Amino acid sequence: MSNSDAGSPAPVVNFDKLVQRLDDAITALDESRSFAKAGKLPPLFDIVRRVLLQPDGCQAIQDRAERLEKAGVFLGTDWAEPALLQPQLTVYSLQSPQTDTVLVEAMSELRLLAVAMGDFLHESMSAEQAHHYLTQVLAINLQLLFGEGGEAEREQGKLAQISRSVVQHVATRIGYEHVIDRLIDEIWRILQQRPIQVNNVRQMITQIAVCRADPNVDMGSAGQGAERLISSLYGPTQACREDPGIAAYEERLSHMDSSALQGEATGFARSMHDTGLVSPYHATFMRFILENQDSLIAESLGLSMTGRDCLLHYRNLVLTLIREGVFPETAQGLYGLSLLLERGILYQPPVEPALWRQTTLSLCPEARHRLELAYGYQPQPKAWLIQGVLNMLGQPLGVGQGNNPTCQSARALSMWAYNDPDYLLQMVTWAARDNEIIMHFEGTPVSSAASQGGVASAVTLDLDPVSLVVVPHLDRIYAEMGRLCIGREGDPHRWVNPEFHGWSAGRGFSINVDVATGKLKDLDGFLRHFYASYHPDYNGNQPLVHPQPAGVAVTDSAARFIGWHAITILRATLDPEGVMRVYFYNPNNDSGQHWGGDVQVSTATKGERFGEASLPFEQFASRLYIFHYDPLERGEPAAVGEEELARVIDRVHQSWGRDRLPAEAFQAEPPRDA
Questions:
Q1: How far is CA 515 from CA 398, 492, 505, 511, in A?
Q2: What is the pairing mode between strands 438-441 and 508-511?
Q3: Any idea what DSSP says for residue 434?
Q4: Beta strands, E only, 465-578
Q5: What pTM did the predictor assign?
Q6: Sorting pLDDT into bands at 50, 70 and 90, what band is 425?
Q7: If residue 221 lies in a helix (H) or strand (E), which one and from where to where?
């Protein structure tokens, strides 16, 4: 690997003296009072910059990462909370022309490397999470590992040397030999969950493709499993295998006979359903056959008899949706369209006219602006919104909340798409056309336009098109409903969840935390009630009819409490190995999490459908703190085994409930006889 473009050699300095000055600067920052810290940062940053320009500079900063954080170098910045950092944003900060931005990003990466290596026990991020984050950072910044210097580096000058050195140092410590392979495994793990938003995945695959195509890069045996991923985007069929470009592919299509077109249709469908990704060439092909041979649409979408029947019955609507919403840029909508047809929801009477309305919907300036900010100006915002609608209706469990504290809103969209699609389409219309949604809380109208503000101070743009338009409104309404509960005793979710999510949410409510004190309360009764309501062995083997909102206490891999999180319980049944599991929807973008001990959330191989997460019933119950139920459907709580309940309670006490034990749990044991 050549570093010839890293800039001119750093001047010869006494490294030991420089590091001593660094230690002194950190101490000065640490000992300064909060109002004086800002004045200590410029000299510290200057020394950090000089250290990072030295051969062993990255290791020196890594060794002092914990001291730097505790001294306050990240206070008041976007890097203050490691758990909120987004790997994709490192591209911009590492290539920034602003010295302070590059330095803070560099220190943050080295801080997380110290966490990943076990040298820094961080209170909000585990070593596993840090390693996972850095793997993504390396994937997105592969050009800093292998590529030649570009325009961004030339603009940066010597700062580019720092960015390159940091990324290479991280890769060296984590291991070059498995960066690509870990990335490929990570991509497949995410794709197994079939998320709607796949921009990050596409970006990672593109970086791998660029890396593999570079003759100057020696990857050894790494990356051998990338071919299926790369071909899914850039060459899923024989006629576009070498990624000829859209114009060249259109020319080839015009000269194909029926047999060749049939082969293309089959190839596109196979690739799409294999990975959940749709190539821009697929959209080009679909628009071509739309005008020339639309009998191949069913083949190109990979439809079963159910989907084909739905397509035949609603042919004009489907053709219009493709014509108005499917372009190379919005190709991903084809996967949603395929799954939408397979679900058969067009047979629900309100859905067809609602989708016809969507094809001609006039967007308000606010909705148009948000879509243009996130996705650009081509195609038109209306096409992006149609793509978003197709994906959400086809993949209701693929909705993600992005980097926003809006799990309640994401959960609502998922529940409506899953259970009440015409209501979802009405919400989209109100938000996109009228820039206002009005819901009712116990008969009182609640307007998103009149709300004082939502849970999120600002909703970011890393969302699917429907969420991008609708979530800001839902977030404000949800917060407003919470404000209407002020003064009531107990948790406001008791009243807000059924009003916010709709009639199918159970009116019964149970919580195992005392709102006033934050301590556990009646854990035994809570668990018996949950088993009686959801466990098939205790509820008369009654399957869950409608998805139900619930709340979990999320813990990290060390079983430390992170926060409360909204999920949806979908079903409880035996997995292929005969273990009773709870299958649930988690809106936090990636459901495959380690919640401490043996509580490892599964997203595949345990009987999960696309988008579902699952845990054995006991493990799930140990992280549950809120659930809803139908008060008229009750099992027999007394029939739950004492040993099983004791195991669940112990899991609670050893994890998120460790600091929430009620006072009586701390009573001293009686003195033993001498």
A1: 32, 10, 22, 9
A2: unpaired
A3: I
A4: 508-511, 548-555, 561-574
A5: 0.81
A6: very high
A7: none
